[in-house]
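Why does residue order matter? Because the sequence determines the fold. Keep that principle in mind as you read this record.
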Amino acid sequence: MKYTSTRSVQQVSETYALLHGLANDGGLYVPAGFPERSITYSMIADKSYQEIAYIVLSKFFPSFEEAHLKEMIHAAYSKENFATADIAPIHSLIERLSVLELFHGRTQAFKDMALSLFPYLLVAAKEAEGEDKEVLILTATSGDTGKAALEGFKDVPGTHIQVFYPTDGVSPMQQEQMQKQDGANVNVTAIRGNFDDAQQFLKRLFVDADMADKVGAKGVRFSSANSINVGRLIPQVVYYVAAYEELVGQGAIHEDEAFNVVVPTGNFGNILAAYFAKMMGVPIGKLICASNRNNVLTDFFHNGTYDMNRPFYTTISPSMDILESSNFERFLYYMSGQNPDLTKSRMADLKKDGKLSVTDEELQRIQQSFSGQFVNDEETKAIIEQVYNSYGYLLDPHTAVAMGAYMKELQAHPEDGGRHTVIAATAHPFKFPPAICEALELEKGVTPYDSLEHISAVTGVAFPKQLAQLQDKELRFTKTIDKEAMGKEILEFVDTFGK
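Structure:
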């Protein structure tokens, strides 16, 4: 399998794409020959999650020997890493509506689904490419990616990881998870700014020749654990394929019956993975992109213009507080008919003017598969309360945004009511104690742990042991810097392990 940039016709090997993360022209790597219509139900029927993962991943990373790829998959999706044997269980909420639970990994967020495997893929790619430099993983996070990446890469030989997060842009529990991270090869830093500030800086850094020379002289090279790296994105396709198998197995749909998917998304990787699953042959009908008040994606799906010239809001669903969605570039590439020149031009427009537009014809084609809805904070809290009181099921604020988007979409298109819908549940509700307390009108505790004990007592939802164990761990990473000092912070970290 060869990979190509979204902005040029250059091609590289799959292991090169895994190791480097971002193309040297600033574009994102995509398969040069996408494995379209390569999945049928008969191929995945009665298969385990690990077996389905091999079927999917072998089509994107065929250079890995079968035994080696299966070994990596089974190590990643083990009972030590996931609390449920089926990895991504489906919970039937009501008739024609299911919740795909993606939060049973080590950090209780959907990012575990890819970041449990990605370190294995990266180390294997490093070996295949004959790379003898230490790899520094640079990661910007709006909450969940940071902890999942830290947990995945902690103490992995030959790798180090630097995570940046917005100081006022994550939940108290997400911050606790990162500040108390163990591992000898990790560093975590808060920035005075938002997620977009951190992400934009890191993307510029990956094509900064001067910085590459500086760290290269110390025997270090950069890579990424954000979903700009195909090693982060492709494993997310697996759980949509597995969901299809499970829905048919439960009798919720027939094997040739289309179902809709609702995804709460900020960086667009999670919903793009669902689109990839659709391209591979999974009968996904409509992909509903759910946003919070930072509704740049909703507007795009309505009018065809992606306009970042708008206020940035800090919400109770912080992992979606993003205006520049990195994986949107890959989406544009496929919507343009895989035209790198057009994609490059549009990304230049976005950088120059803060907005880009597609043609009316392209928008009509996009709207055949995609729609967008957004939900504000008050609506989100009301949905958490409504779903809990009606069904005894506790949603986190991001999944509640998806539920609200589903309700709005159904109101706008009642004809879709007969089609089964799957809502991607992206995080455990206990990662967001203030929002849950407000939604259920419970008194907040002095600490996040007090609040969670109260929530658990009232709802009966068990306190995840990984979160409970945090309470007695010491704070390690409490530094806050100006966003302009990110480069200096990286170089200082490199000095601790570079040659």
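The two ends are 34 Å apart (CA to CA).
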